[in-house]
Amino acid sequence: GVALRLLKTPRDSGEAQPRGKSLAYANSLIAWREKQSHKGVDEGLMLSTDGFVCEGVTCNIFWIQNGALYTPAVETGLLPGVHRAYLLELAESLGMSVQEGAYDWQALLRAEAILTINAATGPREVGTLLDREGRCAWRANAIAPAACKRLVSAYRESLPQV
Q1: What is the pLDDT of residue 29?
Q2: Rounded Cα–Cα distance for residues 43 and 126 (Å)
Q3: String of b and e for 84-113 (b: at least 16 CB within 10 Å)?
Q4: How large is the C-alpha radius of gyration of the chain?
Q5: Taking a C-beta distance cutoff of 8 angstroms, is the pair 56, 4 a contact?
Q6: Stated pTM of the model
Q7: What is the rounded distance in angstroms from the CA atom of residue 13 to the CA atom of residue 16?
């Protein structure tokens, strides 16, 4: 799975809310460079300036706890991606409870599974969550929860066949 590391760089939420794609990439470039400076890290996780889980450098973040799908709310400053919206709709169509809100780092540490998603990769399971110092703070179970497998499978099955 993906190695996801908590970055020191916060998500700059100085843009209008909800944030759309823009040409203001400075914050993302700083976070990307920080992520690149850490060997073996696939993705960097940014918190909001208020300390809430926000998004990855190039992805949105989800996690599963007790069969429910959690994700940060748009108000945290994240980019509300099309694939994020699609995954939320798909989860609801599967009968999953979907929770959007302001969650702290500890919420991720209680997760049964963590996912990232973007347009290029689709959903990817996180295998390791690292703290700011690079220490393993969370590791995926060998067997992903059924809700996670069902959601990822449904996403992949919904894609057009080429």
Answers
A1: 81
A2: 10
A3: bebbbebbeeeebebeeeebebebbeebbb
A4: 15
A5: yes
A6: 0.89
A7: 8
User: Which amino acid is present at 95?
Assistant: G
Q: What angle do CA 31, 142, 34 make, to 5 degrees?
A: 10
Residue 26 in tokens: 């400075």
For residue 157, give Cα distances in angstroms to 50, 90, 147, 154, 160: 37, 11, 15, 5, 8
Close Cβ partners of 123 (under 8 Å, ≥ 6 residues apart):
62, 87, 115, 116, 117, 151, 152, 155
Phi-psi map region of 24: left, alpha, beta (phi>0 left; psi -120 to 50 alpha): beta
Per-residue pLDDT tens digits for 108-139:
999 999 999 999 999 999 999 999 999 999 99
CB 111 within 8 Å of CB 138: yes
